[in-house]
Structure formats: C-alpha cells, structure tokens
Amino acid sequence: MRTRTLGTTGPAVSELGLGLMGMSDLYGPADEAESIATIHAALDAGITLMDTGDFYGMGHNEMLLRDALKGRAREQVVISVKFGALRDPDGGWGGNDGRPQAVKNFLAYTLRRLGTDHVDVYRPARLDPSVPVEETVGAIAEMVKAGHVRHIGLSEVGAETLRRAHAVHPISDLQIEYSLLSRGIERDILPAARELGIGVTAYGVLSRGLLSGHWSPGRALGAGDFRGMSPRFQQENLQRNLDLVEALRRVAEAKGASVAQLALAWVAAQGEDIIPLVGARRRDRLAESLAASDLALTPQDLADIERAVPAGAAAGDRYATAQMSHLDSEAPGNGS
After folding, report:
1. Does residue 218 carry a pLDDT above 80?
2. Which are the catalytic amino acids?
3. Is the pLDDT confidence value at 137 over 50?
4. Which of 110, 193, 196, 218 has its CA at 20 to 30 Å from residue 159's CA atom?
C-alpha cells in the first residue's frame, strides 16, 4: 500500500488507516475473534496506522489491539491513541480531563494495556474547557521528551486552537470528521492545518454507515448503538440522506465501484495530507474499503460526485443538540 505522511513532522503511514472504535463500543456488539481477524487482514494488506482510544470500551479496545499485535513487529505499526474522555460503569460520559497530571496518568494505563513502551501519536479526544490547550499539549510534550510518546495530535478542534497548540509543540495531525456529508472543515479548519503543516486523519468517512451503500431505512439498531440518537439517522433526515446515497450510487456504478469505495476515494482525493480512517469491523467490509485505494478519480468523476452530493446537502446535524457543545468542532464557540 502507498504511504502518506502525517503532516510535516509526523510519521509515514499507510494511505488508509484502520479505526478500531466500533470493535469495542458505540456501534453495538462486535465479534472479538472477527475483530482480531480484521486487524490481521489490515496489517497483511499493508495498513500500518491503527487508531484507538483509551475510553473505547473502557480499555477493551487497547487490549484488543494488544492481542492482535502479538507476534507482530512493533516498529511496523503506528499506534494512534485518543485520551481524556471520562466514562462511568454504565458506559455513560462524564466530560473530558486534560489536566497535565491526568495526561500522564491516562498514558501510563494506555502503555500497560497496549503492552508497549511508547505511543506513536497521542491526542486528547476533545478539549477540556477548564484547561488551556497549551497546558495539555505541554504535558504531552514532556512525555515526548521522556520517550513515551513520539508525536502529538489533536482531535475535533478549531483553527485557532490548532495555532495555539502548534506554538507549544509541533502537531503532527488533526483527527476530525470529514466526508461527503460532513465538509465543515473545508472553510477554516483545513486551510489552517495546511498553513501549519498539520496532516488530517479523517474519521467518519462513510458517515457512520450512511455512505456504506448498505444502509436501509428499516434497519434496526442494537442496544448501545449511538446512531439511534444521531439526527442524520432519524426519519425524514435519514430518507433524505439515503436519497443522496442513491445519487452517489449511480456515479459509483458508472465507475465500476461501490458507494463506499467512491466515498472513500473522494476523501483521499482531497489532498495527500489527508489519511482516511476505515472503520471496518469485519474482513468483508475491510476488503471492500481497501479497493478504494486503487480507484483513481478524474476531474469529471469529482464533478459528478459533487453534483450527486453537494456540499451542505446532508440532512441533520452530526450530533444531537445536547452533544454539540463538547463533541463538534463546528459547534458555535468551538473554533477557539
């Protein structure tokens, strides 16, 4: 697989990464054996970037990755970890903790769960509004100096926060949602990242399944699947979004590709500084996504895609109103 670099200061990684969240949390039950088999298939296909979070399944995701990497050379894998989100025993959410002492505490537990002596990219999942970003990034910088972290990333922050953090320590990449249905970063955030030489690891490239080409209006969601609360999956919004998918399907079929492949290829085509994260939980879905790396899009293809799914065409917000203030970089007040 071809490689790209996480910004001007980050590591070289595969042009597609594997996002592991759904193997442990938020999308309903997952089969652990199939999850590990999917990680193995990704590694065998040349994917080197593995993205996890210490709060995905309250540590389960990191231990799952540790088990999957047994017998593999550590230096052949780039492990990206998000931290700081607080959970309770029932799986609820309690905000984010970005205090310097908490940063080091989270990292200590992560290193033990992963069975490694360093994390390649370490990033707060969301900002702690009570802690200046300079303090959080400064604490991670201390861990870089100590050898426990190789590179610093951020997640879901606005343009001004990027600049403030980058002034403390070089930021390798910003992890943020970016897809045909979520293009808000194009106005201010992506230009700022490019100005600073910060790469983008794009999650949600299939819009949590909407752009998979496999979603149906009557699909039942299991317990613990947060899409049941997502505005884009609700009633009229869902139907309007699936109408966009059908328009995209016509473009994909003319190209001899699937909807998912076209949606992935579109994100990858937006710049060499963007690495899409594939959220596959099964080997068959992974195989479909991997084929997107061989899908070359012409200017005419890009124009056809733009007509099928224009910027701003998605129905419904990315998150429910109660979640917007702390989860969404595009929410009012989150640009700084």
Report:
1. no
2. 56
3. yes
4. 110
Asked if the model's pLDDT at residue 28 lies above 80, the reply is no
Residue 277 CA to its chain's centroid (Å): 5
Separation CA 179–CA 250 (nearest Å): 18
- CA dist 228 and 146 (Å) reads 43
Helix (H/G/I), strand (E/B), else coil: 299: helix
Q: How far apart are CA 223 and CA 88, in angstroms?
A: 17
Give the pLDDT band (50/70/90) at residue 333.
Answer: very low
Altogether, the residues listed in the chain come to a count of 336
Tell me if 86 sits within 8 A of 94, measured CB to CB: yes
Distance in angstroms between the alpha carbons of the first and the last residue of the chain: 36
In terms of C-beta density within 10 A (0-12 exposed, 13-18 middle, 19 or more buried), how is residue 147 classed? exposed
CA distances from 203 to 69, 134, 200, 244, 275 (A): 22, 25, 9, 20, 9
Q: Which two tokens stand for residue 17?
A: 């990464």
The answer on pLDDT for 325 being more than 60 is: no
> DSSP assignment of 196-261, as one string?
HT-EEEEE-TTGGGGGGS---TTPPPPTTBGGGG-GGGSHHHHHHHHHHHHHHHHHHHHHT--HHH
Sign of the torsion angle spanned by Cα atoms 15, 313, 175, 17? negative
Report whether 155 contacts 126 (CB < 8 A): yes
Question: pTM of the prediction?
Answer: 0.89
Strands 78-83 and 85-87: unpaired
